[in-house]
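Customer escalation, tier 2.

The customer says the design service returned an amino acid string that "doesn't look like it belongs to this structure." They asked us to rerun it and document both sides in this ticket. The original structure tokens are below, unchanged.
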């Protein structure tokens, strides 16, 4: 399972401007709905899920979030790669009391629960390389994002046994 199979040009959102998580989720959900990736109800679900199960991650030098939808609200499987011009506040996955300034998100929308775990593992492996997050943040267009992901996955596969 590869991230490149799920990231499409119309699921890449660079240099988004949002004052809050709710505003960002609304903007991205509207675009995903218009492109046919999600069904009505996706926005409410993803906000509710994030309220109850935060997805912010503190990495060594970065903070990211990996929100995910529910298969019942997904038409076509996707991963949305989102970068922000200014961080928004999200709560930490392993300690919901701690708030994190997040400016890079990978939003999962999958139609199959078992794919969800495999893809999450793949993303986590890529995120363990600080240069991956920095390269995504430095992208100025959607082609660059696709290239960064493709190269990172290729390198990871070359350096692992799985």
């Amino acid at each position: 399972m590869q991230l490149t199979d799920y990231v499409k040009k119309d699921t890449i959102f660079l240099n988004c401007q949002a004052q809050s998580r709710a505003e960002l989720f609304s903007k991205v959900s509207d675009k995903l709905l218009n492109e046919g990736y999600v069904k009505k109800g996706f926005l409410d679900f993803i906000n509710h899920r994030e309220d109850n199960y935060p997805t912010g991650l503190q990495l060594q030098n970065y903070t990211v979030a990996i929100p995910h939808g529910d298969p019942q609200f997904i038409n076509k499987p996707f991963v949305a790669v989102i970068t922000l011009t200014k961080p928004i506040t999200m709560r930490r996955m392993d300690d919901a009391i701690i708030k994190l300034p997040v400016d890079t998100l990978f939003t999962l929308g999958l139609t199959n629960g078992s794919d969800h775990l495999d893809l999450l593992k793949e993303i986590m492996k890529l995120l363990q390389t600080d240069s991956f997050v920095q390269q995504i943040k430095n992208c100025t267009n959607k082609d660059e994002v696709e290239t960064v992901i493709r190269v990172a996955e290729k390198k990871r596969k070359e350096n692992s046994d799985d």
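Tier 2 assessment: The sequence is consistent with the input. The longest helix spans residues 142-158. Residues 3-158 form a domain with the Mannitol-specific EII; Chain A fold (CATH 3.40.930.10). Sent an explanation to the customer and offered a walkthrough call.
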